[in-house]
Design brief:
By secondary structure, this protein is mainly α. The chain is built from 19 helices and no strands. The radius of gyration is 21 Å and the shape is globular. The chain starts with 10 loop residues before the first helix and ends in a 9-residue tail after the last helix.
Amino acid sequence: MSDAPGRPPRRGLTLAAVLVGLFGYSALETAISPALPAMMTFFGTSPDGIAWAFTALLLVGAVATPLVGRMSDLADKRWVMVGVLTVTTLGVVIAATAQSVVLFTIGQGLQGVGLALVPLSVALVSDLFTPQSAKAGNGLIIAVGTVSTALGLLIAGPVLTLTPFQGLYWIALVFLVPALIAALFIPRTAGRESSARTIDAFGGFLLAIGLGGVMLAISGGKLWGLGSVPQLITAVVALGALAWFVGHERRVAEPLVDVGLMRTAPIAAACMVSFGIGFSTFAAFVILPILVELPVDAGGLGGTATTTGLYLLPLGVAGVVAAPLVGALERAVGSRVSMLIGTGAILAGALVLTVGHRNSWANVTSMVLVGIGIAVALTQMLNIAVTAAPADRRASVSGLAFVVKGVGGALGSLVGATVIGATEYSPTGFVVAFAIGAGVALLTMAAAVLLPARVHEAVQSAGQPAGSAA
């Protein structure tokens, strides 16, 4: 695809805008976790009060991701990318300048739109690149997201010793603003002629209530208490809205989410694997940092946020190395085996954590395995989504898969935090939490077995329109 007759497409600029914006956003959302105590002091609020600011980000992200995915299926992805980066950048500015927790929460909520950057980037790359180049591009997207997560924690400690927590937001703008400017000049992508130019508004409303309610019920377990009446009511309303949403989407001519696609084996398996990846990796991103920063006399490793970043850095480096190779791996061994390699590496990392989390080298080894597993499994999940979904559903399907991953991660974090909290952060609690992650990783491998040996060939033999990945 080109901008104009006789002019080559600016694919390099497209990829740069995607990767720079994604790096800045992902690094910020990781780096602010160690800044929570400073935020509570600055705004004069309780842990529950500041937690709602981050709950707002998750709620908005859960709703915005499928909506943005459908918008990018219908419209010029360039302007959808510009819109997402604009809203995200505005949210960062508001959070950085907020003098009250209410304004800070609004800023965090606007940043939730940025959670749609990954599926939107995948759809943009699949439109502008050749099938094999798109697979490599998907690998780079996952690699950047992985390494930025690790680097965010690594830089958080030094930055917070030099500046107030607002400095983390200003650093993120150094990446987001150039990405926004570059996005204005990426090649145009036309909307799908076969699709209606409208979005199912009522379906979007039901999805917002359903997904938002699920995320609120999960995060509310930490605020209201696990099994409390507010949490149960929220969960019931959310599940009812999702059930209504599924029935509604089956009846409308142009659904927001084509639930019929969820019955196809590759997409259903990819969503199950995505949920499992989100859940099983909570041990690396939530439980291990708690263990590292817990004082030695309380049974922890007595580290700091910087120590946590150093432990997680191998995860990011391994992801950067592994993700771009997934396309070649799939060509060599097929879709199912590639996914089994990725989920198997996550399982191996979780098992190492379970038996060796008191040992520094065991933790580093575990992070390398988890980094490889996340990179391979998530890249393969994206490749499957754009292969098995029709061309006008790539972004919405990959977006839904990432929402499912987010729900899995939130649920895993709640379960893990509940387990170690119930045992008062005893060694047994950490072992049980890591073992739960390993158990879910094993189930995730079982879901990967449901994939066809080679998704592209299975889609073609079924007579379905394949996406860009081959």
